[in-house]
Amino acid sequence: MTIARSVAEVLAQHVSLELECIDRMYLNLYVPILQSEAGVAWFFRHHRGHQFASSALMAPMSRGFVARIEAFAEREGIELITFRRGERKEDIAQQYLADFSADEGVLFIGKAQEKSSVIRTERRRNPRTGASYAWLVKSSAIVNQYYFYCVDRDFGPFFVKFCSYFPYNGKLCLNGHEYLKRQLARRGIRFTELDNGVAQCAEPLRMQEIADTLDAAKIDALARKWFRRLPHPFSPKDRAADFRYDVSILQAEFALTQVFDRPLTGRFFFEQVIRDNLDGGRPDQVQLIFDRSITRRTPGRFRTRVLTEGVVPSLHVDYKSSRIKQYHKEGRALRTETIINDSRDFTIGRRLENLPALRKVGFTANRRLLGVQRISHDCTLGEDAFHHIHNPIQHEGQRVSALRSVTRGRSRFSAPWCCFVYCPAAFPIATCASTSHPCSGCRSSS
Questions:
Q1: Contacts of residue 225, Cβ cutoff 8 Å, sequence gap at least 6
Q2: How many other β-carbons are positioned within 10 Å of the β-carbon of residue 16?
Q3: Which of 113, 133, 178, 260 shows its CA 20 to 30 Å from the CA of 266?
Q4: Which residues pair with 136 in a beta bridge?
């Protein structure tokens, strides 16, 4: 078996499995009306009936929320731990997940102090009377955040994070590949796992159909389901008055996984890609990949980065706040993933309902990057392909004529002229005598 010698050949002939799937999604959880000072004032004055809105009214709510979390952990027998500085939360979650045997439930609850956006009260003074009064302002503070690491029957491992201070904003983190694995297992479709992916599948077309079913409605249903099961910062009366969490997209990853038939093929591909696409982050290349016009006013840095953490290199192409990352996964597959950190980079809203539009942008960018890599590859087969076309061949005992558009001698003679394609002023060009600038021959004849 010969080794593939071009990127196009690798992608066309040496990919045994291909999968497009949403990867990790990091979502904001927030009550829309409580994101402004006026909305917070309305909550306390009109909804709860207080005369003034101040942080003194928020403190009892926070203490009650923390008490419900601690009571929930004790009642359900769930361990409540405090994360130490520099400790990777995902590593701890994997340890708990290895010992978890139930179909779904809470693995553990973690507490960490992190910076968060909060609503505070500051004292202001009336310039006319000199009297002081409380005024609500948006601020940031380092407060306790509570992580609920859970396992869902349909989505697999995920976590929900709540801030312990008003307005109790939160985060939801899930993984589309874990959702896909759960769905394949429930349907009895045989597959081989790849770290955060699938290496082999008995029904690849059916697998892709299942991956495409992960939509905004299913993600929203996951959030509502666990809001009902976990301690909630707002009372049932608050939720009945429509003070409910909304979901928006903070970060979304759209992955294309291409499993190679041999590890050697994958290594060749990635080495070739890095060598030939170091200019992929230039504006003229980036606007091809993301299908976005780039001008001098376009914010952000446009660059290509090759990161070599350990022995596995990765290629990064940046566009504004977003980027495409490409790497050789476990020595078996090429992972190309577009990571959108701000949907407004593509004039798309952040609400979860905009997921279909973001999906289209992400998966299209992956394909465009591979397309650019195909055409930008400095192919080593150029001369061989030329001879193959311009020489007769034998096919099943029959002689097939060649396409003799030019002779080999003529092609060698014309090749040096290509060097002057970027030198328009290299030679003076004569024009016809009928123009305003006749050539020397026309002048002499006249």
A1: 152
A2: 15
A3: 178
A4: 121
Asked if 180 and 23 count as a contact pair (C-beta separation under 8 A), the reply is no
pLDDT in tens, 135-191: 888 888 899 999 999 999 999 999 999 999 999 999 999 999 999 999 999 999 999
Residue with the bigger pLDDT between 307 and 79: it is: 79
The span from the CA of 122 to the CA of 305, in Å, is 45
In a domain, 398, yes or no: no
Which residues lie closer than 8 Å to 386 by C-beta, 6 or more apart? 411
220 and 245 in contact (C-beta within 8 Å)? Answer: no
Amino acid at 442: C
DSSP string, 135-198: EEEEEEEEEEEEEEEEEETTTEEEEEEEESSTT--EEEEEEHHHHHHHHHHHTT--EEEETTEE
> Token pair for residue 303?
């660059």
| Residue 15 within a domain | yes
- What region does 396 belong to: left with phi over 0, alpha with psi -120 to 50, or beta? left
Residue given tokens 């001698």 in the structure block: 409
Helix axes 176-186, 204-212, angle to 10 degrees: 130
The answer to whether residue 209 sits within a structural domain is no
H runs (alpha helix) in 333-381: 355-376
**Mean of the per-residue pLDDT values for the chain?**
81
Report d(CA 427, CA 393) in Å as an integer: 41
**Whole-number Å distance between alpha carbons of 196 and 332:** 13
Q: Give the residue numbers spanning the domain of 257.
A: 1-24+249-381
Q: Residue 341 falls within a domain, yes or no?
A: yes
Residue 236: cis peptide before it, omega within 30 degrees of 0:
no
Judged by DSSP in three states, 446 sits in coil
Q: Please name the residues in contact with 71: beta carbons below 8 A apart, sequence gap of 6 or more.
A: 231
d(C-alpha 62, C-alpha 163), whole Å: 9
Provide the number of structural domains found in the chain: 1
Angstrom distance (rounded) from CA 193 to CA 208: 15
126 alpha carbon, distance to own chain's centre = 49
What letter does residue 107 receive in the DSSP assignment? Answer: E
